[in-house]
């Protein structure tokens, strides 16, 4: 099950609690999907303080102040960590059983570091060094908007990344403590980067892909992903959706998300886990539509995943692929958008799915 603070943040974000939390800031206004206001941490004549819509974080692009809602409450009101946690938990209607302040400190340092790295990687993808990875995406028929919207990046290597972080004001002491604890040093060939956020939208992990390889060996966790084991990929965008399409793979999920026809979350090659299923159910999803690929092994995995879904009180449905398509990504790339629309209308029950497998 996901951690209490993640569930508190996810619940409050679904209710747009940031509008209440930051309502007393001067100059508060909407800017696209975000909120922007005058920064409370320095003298500010113009709005420079960004409040994100999809994660519990803020950033001032003048003084550099950044953090999460717990940190903001402590700085702004003077309350301690546990007082701030109790306030947010009460607003969410969640009783945090136990939470360690040191764990929060570590997670906040982790997400701040990874956000900086992700921005650097995104810029690097469009540099000459990222040309191979960018062409790989285009060769897979990703449009420019799909590439930009999916937050892909290019990892230029550990040394260049560390040099960039130092240029952004991070100290060697901080990097020795946090970067080396978070980042894998032996994955230099996995250059195409995919950010992995928890269900509250906090950037907690990174996946790398070696574009010269195929299959599972083409992917590598660039960070320790154990903190995300119960957080389905992209669920932060679709918390509480009545219907949720569950697919196998990061690129499959990103592609479906960019198309925008149905809420989607991604799981690993082992299918939907019990912890991931608990998380989906905790946010109020009523039906999981499973599409984990074709072939006997994948079909068995879909049935096992359906058992988990139904045991959590949700409805399980199936999106059947023809055996000529390896997975949903393959189907979408080999057909047209109208065919994907038609496929979504073929969602079926377990009984219908089983009958189809026997004919």
Strand order across the largest sheet: 1-2-3-4-5
Helix content: 40-55%
Q: How many structural domains can be distinguished in the coordinates?
A: 3
Low-confidence stretches: none
Radius of gyration: 21 Å
SSE string, helices as H and strands as E: HHEEEEEHHHHHEHHHEEEEHEHEHEHHH
Q: Averaged pLDDT, please? A: 92
CATH homologous superfamily title of the largest domain: DNA primase, catalytic core, N-terminal domain
The shape, in one word, is globular
Cα end-to-end separation: 39 Å
Tell me the number of strands: 13
Look up the CATH topology of the largest domain.
DNA primase DNAg catalytic core, N-terminal domain
Multimeric status of the protein: single chain
**CATH architect. name of the largest domain:** Alpha-Beta Complex
Largest sheet: 5 strands, antiparallel
Count of separate DSSP helical elements:
16
User: Pairing-aware structural class of the strands and helices?
Assistant: alpha+beta
Description:
This protein has 359 residues and is an alpha+beta fold. It has 3 domains: 4-97, Zinc finger, CHC2-typedomain (DNA Primase, Chain A), CATH 3.90.580.10; 103-228, DNA primase, catalytic core, N-terminal domain (DNA primase DNAg catalytic core, N-terminal domain), CATH 3.90.980; 235-358, Dna Topoisomerase Vi A Subunit, Chain: A, domain 2, CATH 3.40.1360.10. The chain is built from 16 helices and 13 strands. Strands 1-2-3-4-5 form a 5-stranded antiparallel beta sheet. Strand 10, helix 11 and strand 11 form a beta-alpha-beta unit. Helix 1 (4-14) packs across helix 4 (81-92) and helix 3 (69-77) crosses helix 4 (81-92). The mean pLDDT is 92.
């Amino acid at each position: 099950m996901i951690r209490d603070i993640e569930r508190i943040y996810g619940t409050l974000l679904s209710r747009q609690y940031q509008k209440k939390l930051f309502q007393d800031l001067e100059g508060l206004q909407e800017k696209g999907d975000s909120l922007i206001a005058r920064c409370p941490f320095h003298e500010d004549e113009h709005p420079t303080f960004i409040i994100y819509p999809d994660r519990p974080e803020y950033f001032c692009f003048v003084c550099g102040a950044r953090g999460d809602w717990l940190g903001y409450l402590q700085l702004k009101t003077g309350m301690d960590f546990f007082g701030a946690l109790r306030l947010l938990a009460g607003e969410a209607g969640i009783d945090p059983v136990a939470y360690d302040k040191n764990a929060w400190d570590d997670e906040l340092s982790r997400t701040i570091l990874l956000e900086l790295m992700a921005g650097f990687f995104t810029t690097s993808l469009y540099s000459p060094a990222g040309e191979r990875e960018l062409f790989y995406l285009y060769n897979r028929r990703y449009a420019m908007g799909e590439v930009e919207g999916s937050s892909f990046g290019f990892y230029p290597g550990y040394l260049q990344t560390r040099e960039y972080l130092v240029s952004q004001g991070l100290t060697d002491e901080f990097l020795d403590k946090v970067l080396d604890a978070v980042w894998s040093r032996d994955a230099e060939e996995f250059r195409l980067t995919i950010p992995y956020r928890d269900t509250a939208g906090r950037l907690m992990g990174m996946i790398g892909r070696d574009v010269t390889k195929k299959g599972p060996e083409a992917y590598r966790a660039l960070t320790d992903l154990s903190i995300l084991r119960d957080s389905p990929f992209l669920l932060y965008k679709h918390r509480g959706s009545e219907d949720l399409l569950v697919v196998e793979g990061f690129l499959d999920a990103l592609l479906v998300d960019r198309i925008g026809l149905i809420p989607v979350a991604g799981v690993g090659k082992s299918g939907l886990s019990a912890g991931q299923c608990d998380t989906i159910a905790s946010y109020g999803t009523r039906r999981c539509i499973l599409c984990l690929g074709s072939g006997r092994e994948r079909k068995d995995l879909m049935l096992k995943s359906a058992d988990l879904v139904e045991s959590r009180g949700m409805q399980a449905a199936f999106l059947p692929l023809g055996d000529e398509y390896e997975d949903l990504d393959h189907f979408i790339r080999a057909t047209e958008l109208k065919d994907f629309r038609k496929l979504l209308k073929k969602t079926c029950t377990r009984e219908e799915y089983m009958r189809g497998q026997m004919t």
